[in-house]
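Aim 2, interim progress. The first record below pairs a target sequence with its structure tokens.
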Amino acid sequence: MAGWQDETEEQEGTAGQEGQDGLDGRDEMPRRASAELKAILEALIFASPEPLTPKAIFKLLATEPREDIQAALALLKQEYERPGGLQLVEVAGGYQIVTRPDLHDWVRRLFNERTTQKLTVQALETLAVIAYRQPITAAEITEVRGVNTSGVLNTLLERHLIKIVGRKQVVGRPFLYATTKEFLIRFGLKDLNDLPKVEDMAEALGFEPPAGLVEQSPREDVLPLSEEDLASGEVEEVDEVEKVE
């Protein structure tokens, strides 16, 4: 009887150890095949309403080794280099799957964009001044363009192409304007360092660059501010647009 009890206790101990090993190992997720991880990345980037940043990707795939994610992303980039209707681009600090530029006319037929309002020449000129001279006040924009810009600024603000990032520390403390993440997305720019020469941009958009517009390299402190920057109080939030007299 004692021998039977000893054997039973030994079997129970072995089973318990195996069960514990199983519990210990259940949190260890098997590494996904590169093809599956690449497919997951493609789906996430495609479904995201805005460019998906590396930070967001790593957070969404927190259970996957970072080096596996980077390798799968490299494979996905390589795959999208093939001829096709879509391309994977880096824009506004993230990744986005978009239609190829040479096919835009066909895509416009689908959405009937002939009714979509386009920016006026005045708005494009003002946007160019802000892009190359930001942060900049309304008075400084007027000085460059030679005409009043208050109405145009309202239009650009409504379309989320520019934003107010603070006030200049001079008499009157006028508002400072800069471009937004939406600006980068609309013009297909990775960041402000991707801005073309003033002349090239003006030619591509079909307007004459203002004579007073001199291209300047954007400063690091204005590469464009995030929502977190605004929330942290590094810049002053305002709700109304400065009116230029």
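The second target in this work package is listed in the same format:
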Amino acid sequence: MEGSAALEGATPPRKQLESAVVRFAGDSGDGMQLTGSRFTLATALAGNNLATFPDFPAEIRAPAGTTYGVSAFQINFGVHKIKTAGDTVDVLIAMNPAALKVNLGDVHANGLLLVDSGAFGEKNLRKAGYDRDPLEDGSLKGFRVIKIDMSQLTLDALKDSGLSKKDSLRCKNMWALGLIYWIFDRDRQSTVDWLNSKFAKTPEIAAGTLAALNAGTRSAKRPRFLPISAPSRCRRRPSGPVSTTT
């Protein structure tokens, strides 16, 4: 199955970046451990040094959308020797309000928040303990915030897949992965091959997950999602430091 066709869009100029700390966070059912592990494999294949830290929910079977059910995966990678998974986070991918609330304190000033705005409805805000929407009340002014309705964009990408709405939304972690792959210039082929192999007996699911992955990468190239002020795109060259794009 085709899944790695060339995606349109010009590549911005590059600058040097020595290392980056990225954290994926969401509900325990959002596939954050899987997403992090796929990004880790792509980063290892790129030749970067790395350290990871999977963070599992505080409670088993915690109610969805609550802070007790947040699952996260952190990776620190770069060209120099990496000794820890990182103390502060450069990029946080938050799939719901609870994930944002639990992990925001670890993001450094002016860090990048990529937030699924589609999950910030009144019900989820209440479950996470928010009285007001943090995306609208100015409380995140010390960070670079990019609000993306990943939920709806995933549904749009999979509208002809034949999957149910519930099953389609389970693919939004792949949408987020496609986005991060482009930001840090990771090669997606290992994930494309893995998805085709894992879902060989259910081709509709394979096609759906690949569609979500591709949609996330395409959306990353649109200025409304990743403006020039977003952090760099990073890749390992055969020699020398990690190169990045702004």
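The helical segments are 32-45, 97-103, 122-127, 150-157, 165-169, 172-183, 189-198, 203-220. This observation will shape the mutagenesis plan for the next reporting period.
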